[in-house]
Design brief:
Helices cover 38% and strands 26% of the residues. It is globular, with a radius of gyration of 20 Å. The strands form 3 sheets. It has an 8-stranded mixed β-sheet with strand order 1-4-3-2-5-6-13-12, sandwiched between helices. Strands 7-8-11 form a 3-stranded antiparallel β-sheet, covered by helices on one side. The protein is built from 9 helices and 13 strands. Strand 2, helix 4 and strand 3 form a beta-alpha-beta unit. With 324 residues, the chain is α/β, with parallel strands linked by helices. Helix 2 runs antiparallel to helix 8. It starts with a strand and ends with a strand.
C-alpha cells in the first residue's frame, strides 16, 4: 500500500527561500541555510560527493547498517519505521530488510521536503515491499513533526535521522529539535541517529574540500539556486569555497569568500547587498560528536541512550536512544 500526505507546497518552499535569503544576506556575518543546496543539480553533486575518496561518512554509515542492522532492528523492536530526510532510501533498505527479518514491521513513513522526488522513491519502494504500508509525508521535519502518523494499535515506532543530518544544526537548535522529536514519540519508541565523530582535523577538512572540487561546486550551487529562483545576479565564479575546522565548537564550517568587492542584486526581493573583498558567508556547519557529549544531549531531551555502533575505523556512529 502506498499513500502520500503533502504538507508542503511549492509556494511554501518559495516563501521559506525568500525569508531565509532576505534574513541571511542582511545578517552580520552573512549566512545561508544548507537546505538550499539541493535543487536537482545540487542533489546530483551531493551524490557525486558521497563517492569521493575523501568523503567517508556515507560509506562508513552504510557499512554499519550492513553489519549491524539486525542488532538495531532487534533492539528497537518497532512496528513502524519513520525516516526524516529519506532521500533515495539506499541505506534505508538495509534497515527495512532487517526489520522485516525481525518480523514486527508493518509500516514505513519516509519524510522529505521534495514532493516529486519523495513520491517517486516511495512508490518504487512500495512496489519492492508489497506487504509494507508506505505512508510518505512531504514536509519540513523541523516544522511538521506533529503531523507524523502514529503506529496502529499503539505499536512502537523507530524514528531514524541518518547521514549526520543532526550535525547541520547549532547546539541550541539541535537541542530544540531533539526535544520536539521526543514530543512526538511515545515512551518506548526509539530514535536512531547517524553521527559523524570527532577525528583528525586534516581528514575532516579534506572531506569537505576534495581535490576534484566537487564540494566547491556544491557549495557555489546555492548561489545558482538563488539566481534561478529569486532573480539574483550572483557570479558563482566570484566566490571561493572555504572549509575550515572550528576546534572550539568541534564543527566544520563551509563558507563562500568573495574574491573581489562586489554588489549583488536579488530582484524578487528588491534587495541589493554588498560584499567586501575577502568577506565570507557561511553556508553550512557540520558538527562532529563524541559519545559522552551526545549522550548528555539525548538525556537532556528525554531519551535514554541505549546502544552505540561504529564502523571499524571509529569514523561514524549510529546511536539508538529510547524515549523515556
Amino acid at each position: 500500500m502506498f499513500r502520500i500526505d503533502r504538507n508542503l507546497t511549492a509556494d511554501d518552499l518559495d516563501k521559506a527561500l525568500r525569508e531565509d535569503v532576505a534574513e541571511g544576506l542582511t545578517a552580520s556575518p552573512k549566512r545561508l541555510p544548507p537546505k538550499w543546496f539541493y535543487d536537482e543539480h545540487g542533489s546530483a553533486l551531493f551524490e557525486d560527493i558521497t563517492a569521493l575518496p575523501e568523503y567517508y561518512p556515507t560509506r562508513a554509515e552504510r557499512s554499519i547498517l550492513a553489519e549491524r542492522s539486525d542488532e538495531i532492528a532487534d533492539a528497537a523492536d518497532a512496528e513502524v519505521l519513520i525516516e526524516l530526510g529519506s532521500g533515495s532510501g539506499v541505506k534505508t533498505r538495509l534497515l527495512l530488510d532487517a526489520m522485516l527479518r525481525h518480523g514486527r514491521i508493518t509500516g514505513f513513513v519516509p519524510v522529505d521536503v521534495s514532493g516529486d522526488f519523495l513520491a517517486a522513491s516511495a512508490a518504487e519502494l512500495a512496489g519492492d515491499y508489497p506487504g509494507l504500508d508506505v505512508h510518505a509525508v512531504v514536509g519540513d521535519f523541523e516544522e511538521h513533526l506533529g503531523l507524523l502518523p502514529a503506529a496502529r494499535d499503539g505499536g512502537r515506532r523507530l524514528l531514524a535521522v541518518l547521514g549526520s543530518t543532526i550535525g547541520n544544526q547549532e547546539p541550541r537548535a539541535r537541542a530544540a529539535f531533539l526535544r520536539d522529536v521526543r514530543g512526538v514519540l511515545d515512551a518506548g519508541d526509539s530514535l536512531l541517529l547517524g553521527t559523524d565523530l570527532v577525528k583528525d582535523p586534516a581528514r575532516l577538512v579534506a572531506a569537505y574540500d576534495d581535490a576534484q572540487g566537487v564540494t566547491a561546486a556544491f557549495n557555489r550551487n546555492v548561489l545558482r539556486v538563488i539566481n534561478h529562483r529569486l532573480g539574483a545576479d550572483f557570479d558563482p565564479a566570484a566566490f571561493d569555497h572555504v572549509a575550515l575546522w572550528d576546534a572550539e565548537r568541534e564543527w566544520i564550517e563551509m563558507r563562500l569568500r568573495a574574491r573581489t568587492a562586489q554588489r549583488v542584486r536579488v530582484a524578487d526581493l528588491g534587495l541589493s547587498v554588498g560584499f567586501a573583498e575577502g568577506e565570507e558567508m557561511r553556508t553550512e556547519i557540520s558538527a562532529k560528536f563524541r559519545r559522552e557529549g551526545l549522550g548528555t544531549e539525548l538525556e537532556g531531551a528525554g531519551f535514554a541512550p541505549a546502544r552505540w555502533w561504529t564502523d571499524p575505523a571509529d569514523d561514524f556512529a549510529l546511536v539508538l536512544a529510547t524515549a523515556r
